[in-house]
Amino acid sequence: MAVGRPSRARPLLAADASDATALSTSLGARSGGAYLDAATGRMVVTVTDATAAQRVRAAGAVAKTVKYSATELDAVFARIEKSAAVVGSSRATDPTTNQVVVTVDSTVTGASLAAVKAAVAAAGDAARLEQTAGTFSLMIAGGQAIYTGGSRCSLGFNVRTPTAFYFVTAGHCTNIGATWSNGSTTIGTRAVSSFPGNDYGIVRYTNTSIAHPSAVWLYSGSSTQSITSVGNAVVGQAVRRSGSTTGVRSGSVTATNASVTYAQGTVSGLIRTNVCAQPGDSGGSLFAGSSALGMTSGGSGNCTVGGTTFFQPLNEVFSTYTNLSLA
């Protein structure tokens, strides 16, 4: 009787990002993380040995051999953050290059810059330093516009408990004021504000005449994107952002679990992207298709020259407040 070849797993694609991430996690110290190769549409899982590579290929992902495990890079990240988290700097692990990326803005000079350079140099080829024009700052201006006092932010996502409706936005926005309006009518009051450390706020709707669909405004006529799930961002993933200053902008995820040190404090566990944003976009929606990913925190640059923007993951809010669901 003829014996056929063993069947191969189907290729892991963008829709299988959670499977690739879980595979990387299960490999422990034998993987440096996972990411989406935008050119091929395949999920890549980095590995530190041949046995792990075989397991990755058997699961349908592309195996890429790297020098450092995620555990080792996490340790490098922690050392740099402890010694050189100066205002105007950010830190993120880049699985595509197997390095911790430390970025400083134009305000980091003199002794502060020297401290960052020393911390990066001490990590050898496990870290690299980048410089960005502009300033890492919060995106507040003096999804759809929401207002408190004299400040404008953007609505992230509508959510609910079994008994009430809420929306989530940036915590640095909800720190400013307790009562929120749509510019003409009061719509809700602050229930939760978490910033710095995190950057999310939850506002309870108090105006029953205001609709609160599970959708993102696309600033194109009356069109919206329905939101049906909460997802985990993956490096290389194509994403869109909606905000009240610059509308809808596109780009990709460049890192997860990033941290940035603003003048107001350090925020950790962020999604880093190359999507542009400007003041007033704070709190706005980051999404991929019908999947909600996060809310705009801050960054550098603008939508003329481009830049780096950080987002607070929505899944952290749902993990903390387990009675919340999408509206």
Put the structure in a nutshell.
Residues 68-123 form the Peptidase S1A alpha-lytic prodomain domain. By secondary structure, the protein is α+β, with helices and mostly antiparallel strands. The chain has helices at residues 17-27, 50-58, 70-84, 110-122, 171-174, 314-320; strands at 33-37, 42-47, 62-65, 89-94, 99-104, 127-131, 137-138, 145-148, 151-154, 157-160, 165-169, 179-181, 186-194, 200-205, 215-217, 224-226, 229-230, 238-243, 247-262, 265-273, 285-288, 291-302, 306-313, 325-326.
Q: Extract low-pLDDT stretches.
A: 1-7
Overall form: globular
Number of domains: 3
CATH fold topology of the largest domain: Thrombin, subunit H
Strand order of the largest sheet: 18-19-20-23-22-21
The percent of residues in helical segments reads 10-25%
CATH architecture annotation name of the largest domain: Beta Barrel
Strand content: 35-45%
Largest sheet: 6 strands, antiparallel, barrel
Tally of extended strands? 24
**Rg estimate, integer Å:** 21 Å
Q: Report, as a whole number of angstroms, the end-to-end distance.
A: 58 Å
In terms of structural class, how would the helical and strand content be classed? Answer: alpha+beta
SSE string, helices as H and strands as E: HEEHEHEEHEEEEEEHEEEEEEEEEEEEHE
Q: What is the number of helical segments per DSSP (H or I, 4+ residues)?
A: 6
CATH superfamily of the largest domain: Trypsin-like serine proteases
CATH class call of the largest domain: Mainly Beta
**What does the average pLDDT come to?**
95
